[in-house]
Design a protein that fits this description.
about 70 residues, mainly alpha, about 60% helix
C-alpha cells in the first residue's frame, strides 16, 4: 500500500519541477479525485460504497490544497 502523497507524485498530480514543487491546486485535487473514482470503479462494484469512499477521500484531497490556480 502506498501513501496518499506517494500516489500524488507517481500519478503526476504533484510535479517535481522547482517551479511547482509542493504546489497542490484545487484543480489538482479534483484531478486526483477523478483518478481515484476511476480506480474505485475498477475494483468496487457497489455504486453506493464507491460514493462513500470518494466522499471520504474528498476531505484529504482538499486539505492538501496549498496554492490557488
Amino acid at each position: 500500500m502506498i501513501s496518499i502523497t506517494t500516489f500524488f507524485w507517481q500519478s503526476g498530480i504533484l510535479e517535481s519541477s522547482t517551479k511547482t514543487e509542493g504546489h497542490f491546486t484545487p484543480s489538482r485535487a479534483e484531478a486526483w479525485l477523478d483518478c481515484m473514482n476511476q480506480a474505485l470503479e475498477e475494483v468496487i462494484p457497489s455504486v453506493e460504497l464507491r460514493s462513500i469512499i470518494l466522499k471520504r477521500l474528498s476531505g484529504p484531497a482538499r486539505f492538501f490544497v496549498n496554492t490557488q490556480e
